[in-house]
Amino acid sequence: MRTMLCAAVLAGLAGCATSRAPLNKMADARGEIRAAEQLDADHVSTASSYLSLAREEEDRGRRLINSGQHRRAAFVLERAQADAELALALATEIPARAEAERAIDRVKQLQSQVPATGGSGVTP
Amino acid sequence: MKRALLPLTAALGLLMGCLAAVPPELIDARLAFDRANNSQTRVLAPGELAVAQRALNRAESEYQRNPWSLNARDTAYVAQRRVQIAESRARLELARRDKANADQQLAATQAQAAGELSQARAKLQAEEDAKRQAEAARQRDAADQAERARQVEADRVAREAQAQRDQLARTQAQLDEQRAQLQARNQELEEARKQQAQAEADRQAAMQEVQRFAKVQEEQRGTVITLPGGLLFAPGRSDLSADAQRALEQVATALKTVSDQHVVIEGHTDAKGSEDTNYELSVLRANAVRDFLSSRGVERDRIEAVGFGETRPVASNASAEGRATNRRVEIVVQRGVGGSGTQQRR
Fold first, then answer.
1. Looking at chain A, which residue has its C-alpha nearest residue B51?
2. Chain centroid to CA A63: how far?
3. Measured between CB atoms, does B243 come within 8 Å of chain A?
4. What are the chain B neighbours of A106 within 8 Å (beta carbons)?
């Protein structure tokens, strides 16, 4: 029994050690983080926290790769990519919502200035 | 023994796997997916939700394969993020639609405002045009009215001027006529003065002639020409002698120069003889003088013949000289006019 368990662990370690480094996932995560940064996600509330997580996970994935834990690094880098994509989505969504709200406010303001002639109000 | 333990160990592991607690990441991912799948996310972000579902299936597979592995938790974590990404995409799409709708409404409202502004401007312009036209019409009416009033006033002034000219012409004509009349009157007056002067000269000349045989004196009753009876009549007679007629010719000439004055011819006698005879004789002698003067051009209706008989002596009848003085005919040229040639006894 002990022999079998040891063999299994060694086999797993060997698998990890022998698999290729998830450089593509590292590149994907890095690309998403850069895209979020370019969209100024650091200055968008909620998006900035996910971007920070993505950076931490990217860093952790890099360390895992450096330590040879390629399979584990791949999962961590997927997390980094997912957090970065969420940061990017929020950095896109929140200004868009703000812009939509401003547009709605402009409509309301203009409609309040224009005498009603049978038209309807703002219908967001 | 060892061979018997191996299946047992596997069964125990499987049992422990089934009894192992589900990772919170997987629980959250499941809940998040259910929430998103039952919301507008399924309509607004179907692609992203499908990606999330695949991620969740993968997480479930990892969990089934190894419930305790970090990979299972990581894939569940990723699945939850995919759901969040899908929800964010759905909210983004919704925001974009709201933005587009707002932009559309903004454009419509701006168009409406522009239209209403244009209508308001057009209405204002129309009102201003109407006001300008009304003001122009009012000014035209006022100008027309003023012109009519000016024309009426001008006509009135012209009429008044014409009337004044007419009146002036009439006045001028009247003045000319009055001047002509005055001139004629002056000429008449001048002529009358000349005639009067001539008459006065003739009278004075005649009187000077008369004074050669008669006494002429001015008394209160007028100019009295006293002709002595011996000159005119023979004693007891009343017919005029030739010398008397010559003397009376001069008297007639003198009386015709004072044609506007009444003449009274008074016959007087002396006291010799009866009073009635003397009276009768004085009347006849006065009438004879009157008739002669009338025959010589002295108007008869301004000659009055009066007989006084012996009643008005001017001298004593006791002497022949006095009686000769009392026998006389007095011709009184009275001042003023009136009287007739009727005989009367005084």
1. A82
2. 19
3. no
4. 102, 106
Q: Are strands B215-219 and B328-333 parallel, antiparallel or unpaired?
A: unpaired
> Cβ of B311: how many Cβ atoms within 10 Å?
15
Return averaged pLDDT per consecutive 10 residues of chain B, 346 residues in all. Answer: 51 53 93 96 96 96 93 95 96 93 88 84 90 92 90 89 86 83 83 78 78 87 86 82 86 83 91 90 92 92 92 90 88 66 42
Separation between Cα atoms, residue A119 and residue B112, nearest integer Å: 9
* Coil, strand or helix at B22: coil
Looking at the DSSP bridge assignments, the partners of residue B329 are B227, B267
Sequence-ordered list of residues with C-beta below 8 angstroms from that of B162, at least 6 positions apart, any chain? none
Distance CA B204, CA B253 (A): 11
Return the residue of A nearest to B84 by Cα: A86
Residue B322 burial (C-beta neighbours within 10 Å; 0-12, 13-18, 19+): middle
ipTM surpassing 0.95, yes or no? no
Shortest distance, CA A14 to any CA of chain B (angstroms)? 18
Q: Which chain A residue shows the shortest CA-CA distance from B89?
A: A89
CB pairs under 8 A between A and B: 96
State how far the Cα of B187 lies from the Cα of B197, in Å rounded to an integer.
15
Judge contact between B267 and B305, C-beta under 8 A. Answer: yes
Q: Model-level pTM?
A: 0.51
Contact A117 B6 (CB under 8 A): no
The more confidently predicted of residues A58 and B232 is A58
d(CA A108, CA B13): 64
